[in-house]
Amino acid sequence: MARCRALVRPALVEAVGRLHPWTGEMAAYALGWADPAGTPDPTGSEGKGVRQALALLGAEAVGADGAEAVPGAVAVELVHTFSLLHDDIMDADALRRQRPAVWKEYGTGPAVLAGDALLAQAVAVLAEAPGRHTGAAVRRLCGTLNDLVSGQAEDLRFEDRPWHGPGAVSPDQYRSMAEHKTGALLGCALALGAVLGGAPDRTVTALDRAGRHLGLAFQAVDDVLGIWGDPAVTGKPVHADLRRGKKTYPVLVALAGGGEVAHELVTLLSSGRPVDGEAAELVAALVEEAGGRAATRDEARRHLDAARRVLRETPLEPTAARRLDALFAHLLDRTW
Amino acid sequence: MARCRALVRPALVEAVGRLHPWTGEMAAYALGWADPAGTPDPTGSEGKGVRQALALLGAEAVGADGAEAVPGAVAVELVHTFSLLHDDIMDADALRRQRPAVWKEYGTGPAVLAGDALLAQAVAVLAEAPGRHTGAAVRRLCGTLNDLVSGQAEDLRFEDRPWHGPGAVSPDQYRSMAEHKTGALLGCALALGAVLGGAPDRTVTALDRAGRHLGLAFQAVDDVLGIWGDPAVTGKPVHADLRRGKKTYPVLVALAGGGEVAHELVTLLSSGRPVDGEAAELVAALVEEAGGRAATRDEARRHLDAARRVLRETPLEPTAARRLDALFAHLLDRTW
């Protein structure tokens, strides 16, 4: 990932430099490059750059030079930053990577604008990429943007749905949301690399699918950590997702199983009382007892396996395919 | 404009129909097609569709069929709707076309999301347009999005600047903001029509320039109406822009002239006291006395003349050029 960051960095800096200075300042803060005063920030709050790495490896996996994928890598990083920025507004998340979210630091209006600037610049960078594949790349990015928005819309709508009964969110509906919200952009990163590297449609589609599975695995791990994660590692409070009443896979799958424990869970979750402290302990224990934790770990393993299987079954350049496989494994290699 | 709306409507409906149902519902409300319950709204709160008309006439003016421009027309209408939606959040404008703004009706988070959905769909519609000119059209739209964001950034930043002294906003800086915020999309509408109609670069650039002048004229008229407009006609309270402390052209040009009246104005505007009732009457009178109203009318006329001159001096299909000229005149034909 460090190699990929180094290759993409100049183009990413150039793209941010083309923004209006004020939105550029917010973008640099959001990317972890600078503190709110605009001073370079060496505290390591910069993201890992998973998406840019996937784009570059996507191109190399289809036998192209990783450099071909740089406009795609820049585009997916900018889209990722845009979506974190706007999602934090919608979800009222005040913290991002242990620092105040952009809306908290600069205000909601400016944060809306900075997100817009990043989104527009993402498309611009890709639309201005040289070569024969630009049009296909832009269309693919547009489809992904539609998926991202749909995923966020589904996620926001889940908040108003009951824990139980005909209106409840099913595990399948949750999976569809997570594929849109998390999987689509990871798939797009790989696919853009392949498109810009001149790969045939079949290979592009396969890599997109691998990225989507990776995203679903990633989300399942996040959901486990959101309930049982160690705050010292996750940077979030213990039982964070339970306190916020978030409808996540472990809880939904525990409820969908029915039975006595599920019934007890519904009663607790629908009581209207805050789920924190001992109540959160109890909910977490019941979700685990009902099999929610194990099922989510299985879900993560299943999608990681599926992603790696796609890599094996697709004709790819062996070194890049091996690197991709190692990256997939590494990304899921967290304590969960 | 009615002819253009009829030609564009099916494609616009289709584009909105491709959104997630919830963002589509908000989009239909923002477009004035439906009330918040999703029921078709026949109260005429739909926009006039200036931008879609410019796109179609832009294609016809370069000798192409207006239908060629439909993807461009849809894109600029969606971008316009997106920008109103997000700008209303940033400016805390609670009313839009005599109805609650989307953020007021649905909440800020959902309104951010609906704007994102519209923006993404605008680019998607254009990127999927058939023909050889798609790439150029998408790149032009991206440039315009960057202009729009820059214009909004400049406008928001003006709020924090003093009325007087070295940090004051100059009339030139205001004009640059207005060209980005209002002119760029009108220019883009015409230019996209021309691009999709296969026009040479020189013609595209000329039509873009005409649209930008039109936008500057339009903004100048808006600024006059924002202070001296009849609330029964504008739908806004009397002295609306003064009450909000907005830095508009009439005030800035009055202040830039210096002299005793300008000095009195600075004192009033910088006093920290609310500018309403009699205070607003007085400020309006002083701005007029210092020549701000007349200078803004001149500014509007000058830019309308410049826009029409570009039409005359550019080789265009005569019927469409005549229609464009009439549309330009009609758009500025308000009581000011």
Short description:
Chains A, B: Keywords: Transferase. Chains A, B: Belongs to the FPP/GGPP synthase family. The structure is a homodimer of 336-residue chains. By secondary structure, chain A is mainly alpha-helical.
Sequence-ordered SSE layout with sheet pairings:
The structure is a homodimer of 336-residue chains.
Chain A lengths: L1 H16 L3 H10 L19 H12 L8 H21 L4 E2 L2 E2 L1 H5 L1 H20 L6 H25 L12 H26 L4 H28 L2 H4 L5 H4 L5 H8 L2 H11 L7 H13 L2 H22 L4 H15 L4
Helix pairs in contact in A: 1-4, 2-6, 3-4, 3-8, 3-16, 4-6, 4-7, 4-8, 7-8, 8-9, 9-15, 12-14, 12-15, 13-14, 15-16
Description:
The structure is a homodimer of 336-residue chains. Chain A has helices at 2-17, 21-30, 50-61, 70-90, 102-106, 108-127, 134-158, 171-196, 201-228, 231-234, 240-243, 249-256, 259-269, 277-289, 292-313, 318-332; strands at residues 95-96, 99-100. With 336 residues, chain A is mainly alpha-helical. Chain A has one domain (2-329): Farnesyl Diphosphate Synthase (Orthogonal Bundle). In chain A, strands 1-2 form a two-stranded antiparallel sheet. In chain A, β1 (95-96) and β2 form a beta hairpin. In chain A, α2 crosses α6, α4 runs antiparallel to α8 (171-196) and α13 (259-269) packs antiparallel against α14. The longest helix of chain A is centred in the middle third of the chain and has 28 residues, at 201-228. Chain A is globular, with a radius of gyration of 20 Å. The mean pLDDT of chain A is 94. Chain A binds chain B through residues 18-20, 22-23, 86, 89-92, 108-110, 112-113, 115-117, 119-121, 123-124, 127-128, 134-135, 138-139, 142-143, 145-146, 148-150, 152-154, 156-157, and chain B through 18-20, 22-23, 86, 89-92, 108-110, 112-113, 115-117, 119-121, 123-124, 127-128, 134-135, 138-139, 142-143, 145-146, 148-150, 152-154, 156-157.
